[in-house]
Specification:
heterodimer; A: alpha+beta; eleven-stranded mixed beta sheet; nine-stranded mixed beta sheet; B: alpha+beta; 2 domains; four-stranded antiparallel beta sheet; 18% strand; globular
Chain lengths: 1141, 369
């Protein structure tokens, strides 16, 4: 009973939560203690318990709910309706014919989903019943995880996973920090540090913790993993002290505690309200272009189906108006039928015709397409050429729905860092006041101190300069968020780093920072660790310097800089700031700006990533002010981010420039080759990067995105400052259009005149100006159009200084442009996720910046170079395969159903099926299903090496060209033609002549007449053979599997027919097929006409193919003949291979 | 000019069967066969349809089809066929009275006589058919109106046949055997053929009733219900509404040809595919003497007119035909073969021209590559 009540309560509370969500913040009472009277009202809010429900079904609701889910799909619903109609009315075909396939599909899906759900149930149970240690009244109590409630204080030990979202109260470490890995949440395996609130970190035992008297106010749960705002009120002697809470205090469910003995924390979000659970929601489904055309065809066929049924019903009643035709003496209706109203009869007839022709939209097409996609995607995963030996990673397919879309890509949007480049940063040089320091690579573990080759730009550095130099080094050692990954013992750290041994190393979410800190190590300043808020640095004289870390103004992509405020041992306070040159220079008031700027620009042109470093000494008063501003912003519950940004803006000013650093990010292997191939394949490649223009442009040149011949158009803030955006845009579009206008005019004279192509560079600021919806200026609405027009004519576009959201905006803009091109986005970092989700196809690179891109992508590849094979080979194949699959499926069902339609004209529109029930059912399921499925898995119309070598072949299938209407109509017309040939061929053989079997050959019997079932069987035999041979004609790649399946399925048809007609099947109440097939085969004319009809059916297609190939060959077709011509060369290669072996 | 080729990698892989291809697979593969499959590098035959490859096929098809067609056509033309319509639509036709005075209730049967002349003698076995026009034996309601269990001698189905037989399932309490519309409308005209001797005497032509149905139908698919004799076996059932005799008295002359295994009945039960159809009625076996089976001359066809077709504008015919190895008279197949063969031949010529003209062009274009 109690159990029931608790479930009831949860149910009620879940419903109530709906209302409470409207309250924008929640109050949590730590340990469920009421706040001291007078401070605030104690409102008991109801929160859900900590039960995780990831399963969809329960034992009881599985069948109804699963059925409901499945029949919500249009296709399934359609077949269900057909099935029900068959059950209700007197239909020509038995309900089994559509019920059996539907039942099969539904059952298989249900079993699969049921199994998955059972696994989820098990997982849920394991999670929900896992024991959790809770502090109650100063004692530790073990609870099941699902019984955990908001406000409970939880004890978590090392290597345990957090049971819900928790606010850290105290940790076993003295400094109130703990280390956490979020590998299971976002794939980042680095340890992150979380902090306890100053006022609670001292409570380190159960007894103490249960004395904490505090309330937490925080926002209602949000799915964003990295955002959290809240406030804790700690009551010290009934005096509330408010402290800000941020994401650095919030321990997320699913993360694991590391390197910390134990922590105490309070639950604030439980169960389905945890951030992990809120992130369960799957991303929106992407649909491929092929699927869209398939649906369009489906609509066409549905119209054909309905019109067929309407026509036949109409004709039926016209024909039946003569009562002797309607009800001749030999064929009377039953009384109940006679009494039915004519309208009802007509409607039933309409439905019966629908049922009769419903096979034109086969349930098996959906199954086959799904299977093709699912099985086909394994070829991507198995591909050894996309295996990265270093990482040991293969390509990953997250959605197989988009395989064919890979063959349709027109725009490629790629990130630069980590995608085009390796994101393997190497510190190259630094420049302090114009002195350039280049650390030698560490040879034999020996670090050359700062004396390493110094390029003297200025005169000899005086003592002042030396001081600045050291300040610069210290700044770089301090201004970062790098952690030291510790090996087992704490003592080892210092030792390890000092010795330069690999026993410990730096980890950071930004590889730049690691490169910088490591670079500093080579220049003599080693960052040791952060301990008790003290950063320890080992300077050149092997002395440990300690700086107290006061504040960290974290990096964000809008500000593009970060700062730290530290207090040196001597008590001076500094603000060190490092960031992109564009965000530092405007804030600098002193320093050798000119020299540094020159060096930065020089480095940027070489493709190096540059950062500027500046500092600002703070007086205690200034620090107080800073503290005040920061804490004010941090305590805000609303718009905290905005307030923080404002505070940062105020603090990070009046800087003194120290110098700049340069870090190299090498191009990924074969990136240039890949980009070139994509270009040749007719794709437009856009680089979207947050980097600065010069660096990005240099990378673009290196990766051959821009060639020397490329005419670069700039659309940057620099230009728009000189001219108005309007003028610049019109200027550029004129340049582009003039060129192309000229091109088209003398197009005929010279095809090779295509020497100048355009490259566009645009930066984030200008882009947002272009994209801004025009309110005041009527012209501004056109900017987007003009911009798109320019882009359309540029082979390469570089967008620099992009915010993550802008990347997605660009993709969206291109997607929405009037040609609706297919877009693909490649990226490796969290900042690319939005664009990966936005593009038609999102590809994640398994890079160094965590796994977020991979998790959100449709496909993930280890390296950028694998994109080439992915698109040019796999994409091409999948597109060819699936388009043939779709066209063929419609074709084979037209051929299947059209004779039956014509037959209605000869059987008094009585819905008499032409084929036997078994044939109707099995045609799509077994006689003709496997060959096409196999074709759609194995077909290779061109050798894959040629596809890779000649990317221009990709253009042959661009714009969904194999699924355009003309081709679809060709297939349909071919289907109708074949159907006519089959039907009328058989008709003329039966009509008016004695189409008879020559019985003497087989038995002593003589002349025997054939009936309607023989007629149908003859048509059906021709049908199965024709349809299979059509595929034979289309197959270009015959492995033994193809041979086996194609010939096997024909043999199966014959064997099945022999068997089906060979026995009186006791479970059937009709024996209409008994010996029909054998009798047919024992007749000479039947053989002759089968051969004749198959030939006539295939003839036009063969002729069309051959003539088209001879007269208007596509590039593909030209290439296909080539290997023949160079067969001698190939046999040579062959011999070679044999020799080698 | 062969446009199909084995891909270079096949030669070594196809026979040994366990060798993987390409640089990628070889090094790491543990299961080489599997890897070749996984890498999509299975050895394969890669044929391509070009004018060059298809050309010979077209000529070959043409060369094969045309002779076959001519053979079929000649054979079909050699078949002798005679057809006579005895419906009695016109006033001057002999069966006009019978056709127009037809009543289901009349107990006496009406008969009429049709005279005709065979210009040429019919050699070998001659097959006698009745043909019906505008008779929708393929109507859905009609096709399914039968019970194969009952016809197979199933005792329960005999007493309780399938509902498909409605409205020809029961009369009162008695079930109809055989039930259903098909059985009910059994063709029951009887035809007798007489040769008019030059002397004027009528000489009955012997008509064989057996051997007109499929052997499997007569022996397996159709069976009489078990019983001491047929009348007891069918006890408790009624004859179909339109029948004059119960099913066990269909052929008084031959006790083995009664019940469900009556061959006329079996032939009728195989529903025709099209509304105009003919069904085998009798066989006139070749006589041992050297004279032809049906010598040329005058004949008399004696019809017992029981089967009304005028109400639905139908026609009844009697057909006499000889057969050949390819069955009955059927010029269509021969003509079709000749036509298709000629088209293939013609297309072959067209393709030859195309091939000659365009392939050289593409050849020269490809050479630089």
């Amino acid at each position: 009973m109690g159990m029931d009540f608790s479930t009831l309560r949860t149910l009620i509370s879940r419903y109530c939560v709906g209302e409470e969500n409207w309250v924008d913040s929640r109050t949590v009472y730590i340990g469920h203690k009421e706040p001291p009277p007078g401070t605030e009202a104690f409102i008991q809010q109801r929160f859900p318990d900590n039960r995780i429900v990831s399963c969809k079904y329960t034992f009881w609701n599985f069948i109804p709910k699963n059925m409901f889910e499945q029949f919500r799909r249009v296709a399934n619903f359609y077949f269900l309706v057909i099935f029900l109609v068959q059950l209700i009315i007197d239909t020509p075909t038995s309900p089994i014919t559509s019920g059996l396939p539907l039942f099969f599909v539904i059952t298989v899906t249900a079993i699969k989903q049921g199994y998955e759900d059972w696994l989820r149930h098990k997982a849920d149970k394991a999670v929900n019943e896992c024991p959790v240690q809770v502090v109650q009244n100063g004692k530790i109590i073990c609870k099941q995880s699902r019984r955990l409630r908001v406000g409970d204080v939880v004890l978590v030990k090392e290597d345990e996973t957090f049971p819900c979202d928790l606010i850290l109260l105290s940790s076993s470490r003295d400094d109130g920090t703990c280390y956490v890995t979020t590998a299971s949440l976002d794939g980042e395996s680095s340890h992150k540090t979380y902090y306890a609130v100053q006022d609670t970190k001292a409570f380190t035992t159960e007894e103490e913790v249960s004395c904490i008297h505090a309330t937490i106010e925080c926002e209602q749960p949000q799915p964003d993993l990295y955002k959290f705002v809240g406030r804790i009120n700690v009551y010290m002697n009934n005096e509330p002290v408010a402290r800000p809470l941020g994401s650095e205090n919030l321990l997320l469910r699913g993360a694991t505690l590391k390197n910390t003995e134990h922590i105490y924390a309070v639950a604030i979000y439980t169960g389905m309200e945890t951030k992990m659970a809120l992130n369960y929601q799957s991303k929106s489904q992407k649909r491929s272009a092929v699927e869209k055309s398939m649906n369009a065809y489906l609509v066409v066929y549905l119209c054909i189906l309905i019109s067929k049924a309407v026509i036949n019903t109409g004709l039926k009643y016209l024909w039946q108006s003569d009562p002797n035709r309607d009800e001749p003496w030999y064929n009377e209706r039953t009384d109940t039928e006679r009494q039915r109203h004519i309208l009802i009869r007509a409607f039933t007839d309409f439905l019966a015709f629908m049922v009769l022709f419903n096979y034109i939209i086969p349930v098996s097409m959906y199954v086959t397409v799904e299977m093709q996609k699912f099985l086909g995607s394994y070829f991507i995963m198995w591909d050894d050429e996309m295996l990265d030996e270093e990482l040991g990673e293969r390509a990953v397919v997250n959605t197989s729905d988009l395989n064919e879309e890979l063959g349709q890509v027109e725009y490629v949007f790629t990130d630069k860092t980590g995608t085009l480049t390796e994101n393997n940063m190497e510190f190259i040089e630094c420049c302090v006041d114009g002195h350039v320091y280049i650390p030698h690579a560490i040879c034999n573990g020996q670090v050359m101190p700062g004396a390493s080759s110094i390029d003297m730009i200025d005169t000899s550095p005086g003592p002042d300069a030396r001081e600045r130099e050291e300040l610069f080094f210290r700044a770089l050692c301090l201004c970062h968020t790098v952690q030291v990954k510790e090996e087992e013992t704490v003592d080892g750290i210092k030792h390890g780093i000092h010795q330069g041994k690999s026993s410990s190393f730096y980890i950071s979410s930004s590889p730049d920072e690691v490169a910088l800190v490591e670079g500093m190590k080579r220049l003599g300043f080693t960052y040791l660790r952060l301990k008790d808020g003290q950063m320890e640095i080992l300077n050149r004289d092997d002395e440990v310097e300690r700086f107290e870390l006061l504040e960290v103004l974290t990096f964000d992509s809008v500000r593009r800089r970060m700062s730290v405020i530290v207090r040196a041992g001597s008590g001076e306070m500094y603000l060190f700031c490092k960031g992109a040159d564009s965000s530092i220079f405007p804030r600098v008031i002193k320093g050798k700006v000119e020299q540094v700027k020159a060096r930065v620009e020089l480095n940027a042109v070489e493709g190096l990533r540059t950062l500027c470093v500046a500092y600002r000494p703070l007086s205690p008063e200034q620090y107080q002010q800073v503290c005040h501003q920061l804490s004010g912003a941090k305590l805000a519950l609303q718009d905290r981010d905005k307030q923080l940004a404002e505070a940062y803006d105020i603090i990070e000013r009046d800087l003194i420039l120290l110098g700049a650093t340069a870090v190299e990010d090498r191009l990924q292997e074969k990136a240039a080759d890949t980009i070139e191939s994509l270009h040749q394949a007719g794709m437009k490649v856009w680089v979207l990067t947050g980097d600065k223009m010069e660096t990005a442009a240099a990378t673009c040149y290196a990766s051959k995105l821009f060639r020397r011949s490329t005419q670069i158009l700039e659309l940057t803030t620099k230009r728009t400052e000189e001219q108005s955006l309007h003028d610049v845009l019109f200027d550029l579009s004129r340049t582009v259009l003039r060129h192309y206008g000229g091109m088209s005019r003398d197009n005929s004279s010279s095809l090779s005149g295509d020497c100048t192509d355009f490259g566009l560079i645009i930066d984030g600021a200008t882009l947002s100006a272009v994209m801004r919806p025009g309110q005041e200026d009527s012209n501004s609405g056109n900017y987007k159009e003009i911009f798109l027009e320019i882009c359309r004519n540029c082979s390469a576009v570089l967008c620099c200084r992009m915010a993550p959201l802008q990347k997605a905006q660009i993709v969206k803009m291109i997607k929405a442009s009037k040609e609706h091109p297919i877009t693909l986005a490649v990226g490796d970092g969290a900042n690319d996720v939005s664009m990966i989700l936005e593009a038609h196809v999102g590809i994640g690179i398994m890079g160094k910046e965590g796994r977020q891109a991979v998790r959100n992508s449709d496909y993930a590849i280890p390296k950028f170079k694998h994109l080439k094979k992915m698109l040019l080979v796999h994409g091409h194949y999948y597109y060819i395969r699936i388009s043939e699959l779709v066209q063929y499926f419609f074709y084979k069902n037209v051929v299947f159903m059209f004779p039956q339609f014509i037959y209605q004209f000869f059987c008094g529109f009585s819905q008499q099926p032409l084929y036997d029930t078994a044939y109707l059912t099995l045609y799509n399921i077994s006689f003709t299903s496997l060959p096409i499925l196999l074709y759609s898995l194995m077909e290779q119309h061109i050798n894959m090496d040629i596809l890779k070598k000649d990317p221009s072949l990709y253009k042959d299938i661009a714009k969904n060209c194999l699924l355009r209407w003309p081709i679809f109509i060709y297939w349909t017309v071919l289907g109708v033609y074949d159907a006519m040939v089959m039907f009328f061929g058989a008709y003329f053989l039966f009509d008016n002549t004695s189409f008879t079997s020559n019985g003497q050959l087989m038995t002593t019997n003589t002349q025997m007449m054939f009936g309607n079932w023989t007629f149908g069987t003859l048509v059906f035999t021709v049908l199965v053979f024709t349809v299979t041979f059509k595929l034979v004609l289309d197959t270009h790649y015959w492995t033994w599997i193809n041979h086996f399946v194609i010939w096997g399925s024909l043999v199966f048809f014959v064997v099945f027919s022999l068997l089906w007609g060979g026995i009186i099947w006791p479970f059937l109440n009709y024996q209409r097929m008994y010996y029909v097939f054998m009798q047919m085969l024992s007749s000479g004319p039947a053989w002759l006409s089968i051969i004749l009809l198959i030939t006539v059916c295939l003839l036009p297609d063969v002729v069309k193919k051959v003539i088209w190939r001879a007269l208007w060959p596509t590039t593909t077709e030209k290439i296909q003949i080539l290997p023949v011509k160079s067969s001698e060369g190939q046999s040579c290669v062959c011999g070679l291979i044999v020799c080698v072996r | 000019m062969m446009a199909s080729s084995y891909n270079a990698k096949d030669e070594d892989g196809h026979h040994s069967g366990s060798v993987s291809h390409g640089g990628a697979g070889t090094a790491k593969s543990k299961k080489p066969d599997n890897t070749a499959f996984k890498q999509q590098r299975l050895p394969a035959w890669q044929p391509i349809l070009t004018a060059g490859t298809v050309l010979p096929a077209f000529f070959v098809i043409g060369l094969i089809f045309i002779p076959i067609g001519i053979g079929l056509y000649v054979t079909s033309n050699n078949i002798k066929e005679f057809e006579i319509d005895y419906t009695g639509v016109n006033v001057d036709s002999p069966c006009y009275t019978c056709a127009n005075n037809f009543s289901w209730n009349s107990t006496t049967s009406c008969s009429c006589t049709v005279n005709f002349t065979l210009e040429q003698p019919f050699e070998n076995n001659v097959y006698m058919y009745y043909g019906l026009s505008n008779f929708y034996q393929n109507h859905r309601r009609y096709v399914k109106s039968r019970d194969d269990r009952q016809l197979n001698g199933d005792a329960t189905a005999l007493k309780d046949p399938s509902n498909d037989c409605e409205p020809y399932r029961k009369i009162g309490v008695e079930t109809i055997a055989p039930c259903g519309a098909i059985a009910n409308s059994l063709f029951n005209d009887s035809l007798e053929l007489y040769y008019v001797e030059p002397s004027g005497a009528l000489n009955a032509v012997p008509l064989a009733k057996k051997g007109i149905a499929w052997w499997t139908d007569r022996n397996v698919k159709f069976r009489n219900p078990a019983g001491v004799d047929l009348p007891t076996a069918f006890k408790g059932t009624a004859k179909p509404v339109n029948w004059r005799k119960p099913v066990y008295e269909l052929d008084p002359s031959d006790p083995d040809n009664n019940g469900f295994i009556n061959e006329d009945f079996i032939v009728w039960m195989r529903t025709a595919a099209l509304p105009t159809f003919r069904k085998l009625y009798r066989i006139i076996h070749k006589n041992q003497s050297s004279t032809s089976t049906l010598p040329s001359g005058r004949y008399v066809l004696n019809i017992t007119y029981n089967y009304p077709v005028l109400s639905f504008d139908g026609r009844k015919r009697m057909i006499l035909s000889t057969i050949s190895w390819m069955g009955g008279k059927n010029p269509f197949l021969g003509i079709a073969y000749i036509t298709v063969g000629s088209i293939c031949f013609f297309l072959g010529v067209v393709l030859l021209i195309i091939h000659h003209k365009y392939d050289t062009r593409s050849n020269s274009a490809d050479i630089p590559n």
